[in-house]
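Troubleshooting log. The previous run stalled partway through. Resubmitting the same two chains, unchanged.
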Amino acid sequence: MISFLSLVLALLAAPLYPGIILKVKAFFAGKKGPPLLIKYYTLLKLLQKGSVYSTSSSFVFTLGPVVSFAAAIFPLCFFPFAGSASLVSFYGDVVLLFYIMGIGRFFTVVAALDTASPFEGMGAAREVFFSTLAELAIFAILILFYRLTGSLSLNDYFHGENIITLAGVSGALIVLVIVALFMVLLTENSRVPVDDPATHLELTMIHEVMILDHSGPDLALIELGAFYKLFFYAAFIIQLIFPFTAPFSILNMLLFFILMALVYVAVGVIESIMARFKMDLVPKFILTSFALVFFAVILTMGVLQ
Amino acid sequence: METLFLSLTVLLAAGILPLLGHRLFTLMKACYVALTITGCVIGLYSLCPISQLPSQSTLVVDWLHIFQLQFSLDSLSTFFLIPVFFVCPLAVLYVFHYMNKKAEHARTGVNFFFFNLLIIAMALVVIADNMISFALSWEIMSLASFFLVLHEYEQETTRRAGYIYLLFTQLGALCIFLGMGVGYGYTQSLDFAPLSTLPEGLKLWMFCLVLVGFGSKAGVFPIHIWLPYAHPAAPSNISAIMSGVMIKMGIYGVVRFYGLLDISSPVAGQIVLSFGIVSGVLGVIYALGKQDIKKLLAYSSVENIGVILIGLGVGMIGATQGNTGMAIFGFVGGLLHVLNHSLFKSLLFLGAGTVAKQTGTRQLDQLGGLIKRMPLTGKSFLIGSVSISGLPPFNGFVSEFLIYIGAFQGLVLGGMHCVFAMLAILALALIGGLAAACFTRIVGIVFLGEPRADNSAAAKEAGWTMTFPMVILAASCLIIGVWPEPFVHYAFKGVETLLVQTTLDEVLLLEITQKMALASQVFLGLFVVLLVARKFLYRGKQVQSGPTWGCGFTQPTVRIQYTGTSYAMSIVEFFRPMVRLHTHYAGIKRIFPSQASYETHVDDIAEQTLIERIVEPLLFLLGKLRWIQHGHIQLYIGYIIITILVALLCISEGPREILRGLL
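Second attempt completed without errors. Output:
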């Protein structure tokens, strides 16, 4: 029951948090900024509109938003929010989840290529390249977690006796993981310094340029999917930072949703104080995250002793 | 067993028919297709009971009075026979509209004959039960496929491809026979069974020799060089079978000999795993660099062979270390990937053949927008691409998932084994990402967007016998992805014959597969629900169409689209030390620039090294011996006599006696 409730809450609250990023950025710029609920308004507006389709595009173009939305919402069903058991879980579900995200990306990319636009092709090429490298970092994290818990499921990572947390025995390793995961979060969700969603030049964008031709409810699906994806990664980080072991699950949940804001504030701060990297620096940035986790894995192995 | 041989006989008859009746072209084709499909259906039927029963049946035939040909069918053979009898009839059906040049009737007839000979030889390789029958079937298979590659023999590139293929396949066979010789030298028997009594060091030698031999057939990096030549040169139905089914015979050889030798050292597994990682990663990077669709698919075969070997390597390490979970998941994943790859790779090759036939070009950057002109081909190709990228809910994911689980279980081992397991996981992750890049590229450039040249703008959908096999293959990719349990079970049965002495438990394997399949089904369901919801969201809304947003540029042409080259460039450059990238740029120099040109190609490092380090020094050395060939026939006869005399003197006592008697 509590798992189901937390999933519904997560699904409802996910569009709220990107508003926080905007607020933080506005604060740094000395502006008032858009209202906190701006993303809900945007979604409502988009859902009421019709769409314009490019004459170059085919049915693949319309599949893009649907598949990417399905791939974004699906992993949340497996996530143990605030330490409560996840709705569904099985041995090996993390591998499935990251591959499900892969199929979402596959269809976003082919939908972008379907428009025959040079800019969208450019964004697609960058997306597949950078996400490949990010995948390497993610699987290194899974290797580390398997060494720590002997499990391959999100539920076992964060729910039950032997949970992975900063406060645990191997907390020092988790620090590395948190940093790496935050870098992956920035990459996979196309935030600064990897990608800049707010730039006004299509040549420099990655994710935003791939969805240039989507409009109306299709665009709403993509946006909502992007919020869920960001929420998934942010929740992952929060679970690592704070062990939700308090006996009251309602309290845990409240705490969880408050702490979640922290990650978004961090994203907002990074976006305010950093510029976007040059494209050739991005692979190095992502590989740094991989190197961090890989180092942590080596520490667990004792091969070098 | 009798039913199986009945099916092979029908196939042989179907193959001989076109040789006799090729003048009645259409009738011959129809009869050939019908008979071959019948033969394959009988073949599939003959496999049915054995998949459930672990019984084994053997057939022994005397041959040339000295040798015995021995064939037997166990569950491992059965598993490898499934792609043979399932994919081949579809490729045969495809031929009906694909080879429709009536002027070439004789050549088509010959092609059909060798095609059926190839099917029969592959079936025989899989059921061969002693060295002599294995060698015989293996050679028939290699030669039949050589003639199939030479179908368009008047083109020089085809002849060259044919010779490269023949060279590699025969060198591979040499290694295999050498390995068998090692076994025979010790056991003094041509049977497979006594091989397990070999001493451990000898086993490893023999395994390495056959691994090189089978690897050259399977297309393991760096002995994969024939694949990117032979596949584009051969007609597409042939490349579909060669890449989808025939190269798996190499994998069968590795698996079978591993099982026969019963190696207890983990080195074998580590070697296989390392080959797998190298082939997997480099295969997909070269695939990204290629312009020719069929070359690209050939390199992608190298990649998938790599994935299969990673699975097998993980399984072998697990088996020798007593980690049964790792052994089961690794082997089952690897074997299932054999089946899966045979489905989606044949689908993709058939699709590529359709594209090449309907547009007249195989160059990526000449194509575009074909999904609107060839909807069935496009949709099946899209499904094949998603499957080969290993994404759920399609079949490629199931096998990769099982290999992942196997490799993760290996992480509990200590020392080097753990490092190998870790490398396997990271390599799979990298391969997965790069494969998605590679196949979004081919789908995106060939089928989506706008046509980049006139011939692809004018393309039309092919005849039904060409699209129907692709639809069937695409459907089977989805079926295995969503209901993998029976297939996993078959693969497990195969593994059971492989590792006879360890007791294996199927429960965990089936449980995890079942849950994973359920999750895939739910995902598929969610997708369908969302499709319906999207329809609902668009109800009563205004939907218009207009040109693509050009970011303010008002005069777009189709030539400003991203090309296959530009799409892959940054990835290929990233892997530069392992990939040789050549760029020729005659750029814009003056105020009134003349014609600018840009050309780039990716060279295969294995091929370059082979040419520079081995072929050229060898040619130089052998050039020094050219004086032996002078054209005087008397001296040639002299050579022969001297050779015979020396040979006679060298070998055993008997001839020496005769020689003494003569003198």
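Takeaways: The first strand of chain B starts at residue 57 and ends at 63. The mean pLDDT of chain B is 90.
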